[in-house]
Write a structure and sequence with these properties.
The structure is a homodimer of 415-residue chains.
Chain A: H1 10-14, H2 19-29, E1 34-35, H3 48-58, H4 76-88, E2 98-101, H5 103-115, E3 121-126, H6 130-138, E4 142-149, E5 152-153, H7 155-167, E6 172-177, H8 191-204, E7 207-211, E8 240-245, E9 257-260, H9 263-277, H10 282-293, H11 296-323, E10 327-328, E11 337-342, H12 348-358, E12 360-361, E13 363-364, E14 377-381, H13 387-410
Parallel strand pairs in A: 1-12, 3-4, 3-6, 6-7, 7-8
Antiparallel strand pairs in A: 2-9, 4-5, 8-9, 10-11, 11-14, 13-14
Helix pairs in contact in A: 3-10, 5-6, 5-9, 11-13, 12-13
Amino acid sequence: MIDYGRFLSRSGESMQGSAIRKMGTLMAEVRDVVSFAPGYPAEDLFPWRAFGEIAAGLLSGADGSVLQYGPTRGYLPLREAIVGLMTSRGIAAGVDRVVVTTGSQQGLDLIARVLIDPGDLVLLELPSYTGAITVFRNAGATLAGVPQDAEGLDLDALDDVWSTHQAAGRRAKVLYLVPNFQNPTGALLPLKRRQSVLDWARRRDVLVIEDDPYKDLFFPDMATEAETRPIAADDRDGRVIYLSSFSKTLAPGFRVAWLHAPEALAAKLEVAKQAEDLCSGGLDQRVVFEACRRGLLQAHLPALRQHYQAKRDVMVRALTAGLGAAVSWPAPRGGFFLWVRLADDMSSESLLPLALARGVIFVTGSAFFVDGSGRDYLRLSFSAPAPARIEEGVARLSAAVAELAASTASAPVRA
Amino acid sequence: MIDYGRFLSRSGESMQGSAIRKMGTLMAEVRDVVSFAPGYPAEDLFPWRAFGEIAAGLLSGADGSVLQYGPTRGYLPLREAIVGLMTSRGIAAGVDRVVVTTGSQQGLDLIARVLIDPGDLVLLELPSYTGAITVFRNAGATLAGVPQDAEGLDLDALDDVWSTHQAAGRRAKVLYLVPNFQNPTGALLPLKRRQSVLDWARRRDVLVIEDDPYKDLFFPDMATEAETRPIAADDRDGRVIYLSSFSKTLAPGFRVAWLHAPEALAAKLEVAKQAEDLCSGGLDQRVVFEACRRGLLQAHLPALRQHYQAKRDVMVRALTAGLGAAVSWPAPRGGFFLWVRLADDMSSESLLPLALARGVIFVTGSAFFVDGSGRDYLRLSFSAPAPARIEEGVARLSAAVAELAASTASAPVRA
């Protein structure tokens, strides 16, 4: 038997599987589990009939390029539609700055390849999206977490963290953040802070990576579209690399997302993508383009907002009824997640096996913290399960928390 | 204006665009160009009607998972179908060893990530596939080219190259090769040499990366299926990582390929893929699966073989008639390419602008050589253009070669 260890690269040796993906595997193995783990969109909301009609037209064979290799940057009409979308978001976008990516995960990976050397410093929110953490970690970056308050990134803390590292000779190249309905906290960064982020980035000469998958999914009862204005909209000097996706608004199975970067970087990111997968799927890109061109995407958004808002309400009501003071959470004003804190120093890692035994799963908080903290948090996705399943899942979770609380209370007190 | 240079990683600074992809861009910019450059399959042969029917069924909405995020390893029924395919190729495959990839390009990239550190030695054929060269170069590998003779990889040369580097303290981790209808030479490595490669790899403790996109596309007039038996078929100790693809036999727009690796490495490659794009396209994977399940793929292969064989004949006839002794090539027994050598020390780099001016493009030979040689070669793809366009393109090429020969002959002789 060959020992493959001696063939591995340093990156191959050290890379870690995603906690969220592990939950997905776990879920597939257990019967009747309610999954609050991955941030999956609701499948019953996908516009199936429209997709079917669009695909039928595309597969007529009239345009052979639909299933041929395509340009690495993406299908040009789609890139133009993306410029239109970005313009409606207030961003002065350029088609030469758009690269279509195989999901935003690829966009993050390309950025890390082009910008990050081992040892480079990356600033990101505490907690932050695990997919971004993984990418930067794989690139060998030093990750520095910046605390958030109830509204999101704390600007004073940001400069403190930057200064500490700067003083130690570590220059931060990039700040990664999710200003709209942050993953996992759900926070909506106030407009004033967004401007401050930009001013700060200019002053400290740092690039901003703005990851914006949830922008269109604000909840009308607590947020407005104006409040979701991207940081990139006020970027005058090419400081921001912006990422967004069709995965949450159309369907993730198409693997179609995009990034928008200063031209010089877009050219580098394109070359990086050549080596990663040559191009994204041809049929997928055209279905997404047609969904944009026909107005399907825009027409679909109000229903999505109502749907996810209603599911948030179901989960909030169930948690309040089932768990009361044992947990707390900031009310999400959009997105897919409820960021729950356990009371009484309970740990979500201890909770997980109890929850799994009762048929409910979530992602433990520590997966989102680059500083090893967060064990009293858990992320619950309310996006995919039907309302009755959300209620069932929260009931199971409540029983698991009660069990954990009882065992914690009866455990011997340590000095 | 920001100088982005100081934000780039070493890899971001040094990465080079693909010569083939550049040709694609050139092609898009010139009117009425005959492209012999990228190895595109013939679009008119894609089974459009069957794909349309399959997609319509999949998009009924009955199975929501079609457009949802999926497992990183790939859609399980597709992985099982791939095991079936590999079994028919003589390989003792295991479903836990299969990872579906977003094209074989991603497979190569994942392998480089998991195995190659900067400075690691990679052995590959001289000439070799540019997409592999790029991936290993991006990973910072030292690339050592191994000469080929008319039948492919030269085993004595392989051990010589290995020994030279070994003596200099550089250990080779992997040997990358394309035994079936090599890209760009078209060579079909004899079965005896395949066994020798395996014996050599065991003796020298090197992993073999066998890239096999063209296996099913042998030409019945000059090759048999038995002659395409993969090296992996005789791998008893987990020495070979095997890659293959549906891009050349079904359609590249689906971006569905696979790799098959020893379990320990497959697990690492899966984790690497998580960070790269989470999963490959859901609809795409299911269309490909259905094409396998319904027997569409197998039924389609004889027509593909005849089609590409006939196109090879068209190109060979046209080249013989138009260029005579000015060029030579080994007769390809399968695949997409004619590997042409220019006589009289003409350079394909000098030929390219003349050819482009006359409306025909190809890939210059030097793109395939890691040692900087190959300037008297060009790669012509006969796979995509219609027969009349092949004839037109070769006529244009012949005129360009005549022009180059005339200018070379009239140039002053250098001492």
